[in-house]
């Protein structure tokens, strides 16, 4: 499952407006599913997990707030449940810049996404 979701996210480019129109919202759904999967430590140990990190870091640069929010959720699940190697991979992925841009924005503009995140037992504010 991780491989399929990662492949979908690999095709994402922050500059590809046409692809976002064709996507129909599937990008954030993939990030949400990864966030849910990454709550399981056995799933995080899979080799495909490390290949998902660069795609999630790239997704943090999306123009769509929902894409950025659930990419942050997936990375938060990895950080909370992963090993030191996972933490290093997330730290070295360049995700910090994308997460910094979410600070403050999450509280003001994404309150409805917080309710959706709670439905899936995810953190209300993944930036923290």
TrEMBL record:
Q: What InterPro entries does this protein's entry cite?
A: ARM-like, ARM-type_fold, CSI1/2/3
Q: State the superkingdom.
A: Eukaryota
Q: Which SUPFAM superfamilies match?
A: ARM repeat (SSF48371)
**GO CC: one term?**
cellulose synthase complex
Q: Listed GO molecular functions?
A: microtubule binding
Name of the protein this chain belongs to: Uncharacterized protein
Q: What does the entry give for GO biological process?
A: anisotropic cell growth; regulation of cellulose biosynthetic process
């Amino acid at each position: 499952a991780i491989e399929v979701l990662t492949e979908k996210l690999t095709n994402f480019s922050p500059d590809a407006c046409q692809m976002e129109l064709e996507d129909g919202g599937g990008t954030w759904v993939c990030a949400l599913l990864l966030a849910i999967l990454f709550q399981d430590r056995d799933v995080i140990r899979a080799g495909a997990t490390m290949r998902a990190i660069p795609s999630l870091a790239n997704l943090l640069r999306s123009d769509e707030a929902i894409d950025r929010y659930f990419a942050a959720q997936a990375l938060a699940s990895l950080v909370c449940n992963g090993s030191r190697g996972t933490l290093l991979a997330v730290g070295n992925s360049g995700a910090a810049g994308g997460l910094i841009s979410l600070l403050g924005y999450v509280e003001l503009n994404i309150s409805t996404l917080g309710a959706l995140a709670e439905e899936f037992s995810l953190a209300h504010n993944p930036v923290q």
